[in-house]
Amino acid sequence: GNSVTQMEGPVTLSEEAFLTINCTYTATGYPSLFWYVQYPGEGLQLLLKATKADDKGSNKGFEATYRKETTSFHLEKGSVQVSDSAVYFCALLPYNTDKLIFGTGTRLQVFP
Amino acid sequence: DVKVTQSSRYLVKRTGEKVFLECVQDMDHENMFWYRQDPGLGLRLIYFSYDVKMKEKGDIPEGYSVSREKKERFSLILESASTNQTSMYLCASRPGRAPFSGNTIYFGEGSWLTVV
Prior knowledge:
The structure holds two protein chains of two kinds.
Chain A: E1 3-6, E2 11-14, E3 19-21, E4 23-26, E5 32-38, E6 44-50, E7 56-59, E8 62-65, E9 75-77, E10 86-93, E11 101-102, E12 106-111
Chain B: E1 4-6, E2 10-13, E3 19-21, E4 23-25, E5 31-38, E6 42-49, E7 56-57, E8 65-70, E9 73-78, E10 87-94, E11 106-107, E12 111-115
Parallel strand pairs in B: 2-12
Antiparallel strand pairs in B: 1-4, 3-9, 5-6, 5-10, 6-7, 8-9, 10-11, 10-12
């Protein structure tokens, strides 16, 4: 079946540190991959996406590359800010379906 | 900007009450969704709808029903609320039809429901 596994949190970093949040997936065919972010008290916002192998999604300094050989879509940022503190969700959309499948979320806490 | 509006941010209901959660989107999207979000479980799909008066069960439909009488509005109904339905409920919408590759889902801000 289709599933998403992401690293458990919380991830605690100092400002300007390098961030990696791991995400791996299981899927048949050619899914699309997404990262969503949820700031405190808010709904989810799309952070970035990739729709085919080797695509790189990027937004607000965050990047993730769709790696079919390792079935991964790890989220990275070179220098985090306090304002990046949020919960990050990796998600998978199997091809030709309407059911977005989410990971369990990873809480990021950035301290000054 | 796409806007998905959930009518209630915070609700407290009693066990056995009938609960309505309302969601409206303003971008003429065909597809609408209801998820619940619980710590350690991520988001789980309750129901979704491709079009007016159409609905499909998601992964956890038990104890819930939905209504889509108009394209812009998708309601989640708890027929008889129970304490294990205490959760954050998120509505979402998305344009287009299959194949859905790359189409962005837009979420509302969520409704925190507590059943006592």
